[in-house]
Specification:
Helix content: over 70%
Number of helices: 4
Shape: flat
Strand content: under 5%
Organism: Campylobacter portucalensis
Largest sheet: none
Pfam family, one: UPF0060
Number of domains: 1
GO cellular component, one term: plasma membrane
Distance between the termini: 13 Å
Keywords: Cell membrane, Membrane, Transmembrane, Transmembrane helix
Protein name: YnfA family protein
Structural class: mainly alpha
Length: 110
Amino acid sequence: MVEILYYLVAAFFEILGCYFFWIVFKDGKNLAYIGTGILSLIIFAFILTRVESEFAGRAYAAYGGIYIFSSLLWLIFVEKQSITKFDIIGVSFVILGACVIIFGFLKKLH
């Protein structure tokens, strides 16, 4: 399913872009990271336009669930933090919701 791949790649670039801003403003890293953050956010926005959807709002709603899932992966693999049972329960709900939206509009398109 190519849409889910687009969502995962978009989420990576959005989180990466925002993370660069985070490390500059929260961790005091060099301002040069901002340029990479901006580029990452541009790539994120472009990739999200590749999603097969008749309405941007529906694409963004579905993306929200994938973004939350991806954020928890970022927490584990990049920030080396543990997730809680509440993280798992919460992401289960949003992934279910995102899948309903994704499969619903894909079914309508085909």
